[in-house]
Design a protein that fits this description.
Rossmann fold, 174 residues, alpha/beta, 14% strand, 7 helices
């Protein structure tokens, strides 16, 4: 064995040192099982976590999940924020994405099967959102690990965001 000093990264991994403080926020749009897991895991990974849920009944049901619940994205999106839309069947999809795209959010993505056209495309076009802004929306999201369940989808998504933040390829290519 060696008596070499432990690196800072190794110290953190072994619980012998503090994790670096990162100024990053993850906003999940729409209450869903994936959003619950995503926000839980992201909070553990050092993100400030926020759920945007415009439906008051769904917002009330999501409270107590260990994350902040808000009804609109106003004031929460800056260049440290990643936004993941976790339900592409919601009536509010276009309006929420329009507001997100008008912000300085660092990264915007929406869950969905890459073999089917994303419903956000028509919703944003109908609202007059510029094509350059629509093109900012990532789809598919997360690493291509064959995830199927809400926790697997959340892990793949969070891993992809971490890879992107760290300027690593991470496997976003499908």
């Amino acid at each position: 064995m060696t008596d070499a000093p432990e690196s800072a990264a190794c110290a953190v991994a072994h619980g012998h040192g503090p994790a670096p403080v990162a100024d990053r926020t993850l906003v999940a749009a729409f209450a869903s099982p994936v959003a619950n897991f995503l926000l839980h895991f992201a909070g553990d990974a050092g993100y400030r976590v926020v759920l945007v849920e415009p439906d008051p009944a769904l917002a009330e049901g999501a409270r107590g999940g260990g994350f902040e619940v808000i009804s609109a994205v106003d004031g929460y999106l800056d260049e440290t924020t990643d936004v993941v839309v976790t339900d592409h069947h919601r009536q509010e999809l276009g309006a929420v994405l329009r507001d997100v795209l008008a912000s300085k959010a660092r990264w915007v993505g929406i869950m969905g099967n890459p073999r089917h056209p994303g419903p956000h495309l028509a919703a944003l076009a109908e609202l007059g959102v510029a094509q350059a802004d629509i093109d900012r929306v990532h789809r598919p999201i997360g690493l291509n690990i064959g995830s199927r369940t809400p926790p697997e989808i959340a892990i793949a998504t969070l891993a992809g965001l971490i890879a992107d933040r760290n300027d690593r390829p991470g496997g976003f290519t499908f």
